[in-house]
TrEMBL record:
<protein>
    <submittedName>
        <fullName>Saccharopine dehydrogenase</fullName>
    </submittedName>
</protein>
<dbReference type="GO" id="GO:0005739">
    <property type="term" value="C:mitochondrion"/>
</dbReference>
<dbReference type="InterPro" id="IPR005097">
    <property type="entry name" value="Sacchrp_dh_NADP-bd"/>
</dbReference>
<dbReference type="GO" id="GO:0009247">
    <property type="term" value="P:glycolipid biosynthetic process"/>
</dbReference>
<dbReference type="InterPro" id="IPR036291">
    <property type="entry name" value="NAD(P)-bd_dom_sf"/>
</dbReference>
<comment type="similarity">
    <text>Belongs to the saccharopine dehydrogenase family.</text>
</comment>
<dbReference type="InterPro" id="IPR051276">
    <property type="entry name" value="Saccharopine_DH-like_oxidrdct"/>
</dbReference>
<feature type="domain" description="Saccharopine dehydrogenase NADP binding">
    <location>
        <begin position="10"/>
        <end position="141"/>
    </location>
</feature>
<dbReference type="GO" id="GO:0005811">
    <property type="term" value="C:lipid droplet"/>
</dbReference>
<dbReference type="GO" id="GO:0005886">
    <property type="term" value="C:plasma membrane"/>
</dbReference>
<dbReference type="Pfam" id="PF03435">
    <property type="entry name" value="Sacchrp_dh_NADP"/>
</dbReference>
Length: 428
């Protein structure tokens, strides 16, 4: 349990990075004076420069403290953790810079969230800290950005609707990317490369080939298997599905959420993530992923390719982020006796005005941190896990969905046998 009287609600660690600056901007614009927060990182001068820019957005930011702490400085990290209810960690790649930050959080009874997509590192954190964090009532929540909030929470919205409105379990959810536009940052690329270059090749193969990679052994395994690279027809959406690059991360998170849920999603729940489009687009996506995967998997060609890619700290222009958008669908099928057609529930998940990779990601991460810091009683009443190395859905559930809706990100059920009128949304 956390000690009473923490000085801050949240500390943004890695505030000097590209996404860290965006998290701080969201606070300065929308939460300054409503939450107690501080900026943290290793470079005091850089933090002060960013703070000066934030003062132009909101003069009250002048009073926000700056904490100097390096990712390898355990005493400084412990002091930082003692001061706050939640560490929002934006300093990646996490396999390189995250170990001591998580340890400090768990040691000091401080909740923690990040935006990693590095599955190998997440599994290492689970092995090292899950039991202690669970015993202490500390929530360590990975993947709180576009990896994997829209998919993890979108799945939960559909599963919850099927259970509570239709009285059934869920046999399958499709997480479908219908449209998106945005940019790429150097931090994300560095994280992906770090995962590919992990020390244990066997573990890398396991993480990319096993949808149950993050599921606790005692939870058991189902029949879900890798989706493959070839385009396939989805009769429930009347569209083709092509491979989506983030499925390898998000499917593992969704299955861990199911394993940690108070009530399992279904008796043999399956999840597939894909781009929903025409056959030519699905085929082109598959080809590009195969070629790109081959290039990035081989050391020499990976080294050549990375020279032309953005470096850590770099990212898309503000214009690109603010003119971006993403639109997803979560399509759920009910469990039915053999031979009976499933009922179909569709939720639309989107940010129609900002790109997913950075503008939406920074807001998702911030709302996750504030949810952990400020919504503890609601999380307890919802019957969610109170400690451990968790996923967004298992740690914050539909309480986080409510926060994200207030921030402009939609999670609306638009098709279900339970809806009163055809096409009328049923917000969960």
């Amino acid at each position: 349990m956390q000690a009473a009287g923490r000085k801050f609600d949240v500390v943004v660690f890695g505030a000097g990075g590209f996404t860290g600056r965006l998290v701080c901007e969201h606070i300065a614009r929308d939460y300054q004076g409503k939450v107690r927060w501080a900026m943290a990182g290793r470079d005091a001068a850089k933090l002060e420069e960013i703070k000066k820019n934030l003062v132009a957005i909101n003069p009250a930011v002048e009073a926000v403290p700056v904490i100097v702490a390096d990712a390898f400085d355990s005493p400084a990290l412990s002091s930082m953790a003692q001061s706050t209810s939640v560490i929002i960690n934006v300093a990646g790649p996490y396999a390189k810079y995250g170990d001591k930050v998580v340890k400090a959080a768990v040691d000091e009874g401080t909740h923690y969230c990040d935006i990693t997509g590095e599955l190998n590192w997440v599994k290492r954190i689970i092995a090292r800290h899950h039991e202690e964090a669970e015993a202490k009532g500390v929530k360590v929540v990975n993947c709180c950005g576009y990896d994997s909030v829209p998919f993890d929470i979108g799945t939960l919205v559909v599963v919850d609707h099927i259970r509570n409105k239709l009285g059934k379990g869920t046999s399958q959810v499709y997480g479908l990317v219908e449209d998106a536009r945005g940019g790429v940052s150097g931090g994300t690329i560095a994280s992906a490369l770090n995962m590919m270059a992990a020390e244990d090749p066997a573990d890398v193969r396991a993480s990319t080939g096993d949808k149950y990679y993050l599921v606790p052994p005692e939870a058991g395994r189902g029949s879900d298997r890798p989706s493959g690279m070839l385009p396939s027809w989805n009769p429930h959406t009347s569209a083709w599905m092509g491979p989506f690059v983030m499925e390898v991360v998000n499917s593992r998170i969704v299955h861990r959420s199911n394993a940690l849920a108070p009530q399992k999603y279904g008796t043999d729940f399956k999840y597939r993530e894909a781009i929903s489009s025409s056959l030519p687009v699905a085929s082109l996506t598959a080809t590009l992923m195969l070629v790109g995967g081959a290039v990035m998997a081989f050391g020499p060609t990976r080294s050549l390719a990375t020279r032309a890619l953005p470096k850590p700290g770099e990212g898309p222009s503000r214009e690109t982020m603010l003119n971006g958008y993403w639109k997803h669908a979560a399509v759920g099928l009910t469990e039915e006796p053999e031979g009976k057609e499933p009922q179909v529930v569709v939720a639309k998940c989107s940010d129609p005005q900002r790109d997913g990779g950075y503008w939406s990601t920074s807001r998702m991460l911030l709302e996750a941190g504030l949810c952990l810091a400020l919504d503890g009683e609601r999380l307890k009443q919802a019957g969610l896990r109170q400690g451990g190395v968790l996923t967004p859905a298992s740690a914050m559930g539909l309480v986080l969905a409510d926060r994200l809706r207030s921030a402009g990100i939609t999670f609306d059920v638009v098709k279900s046998p339970a809806l009163a009128g055809a096409g009328a949304p049923a917000t969960q």
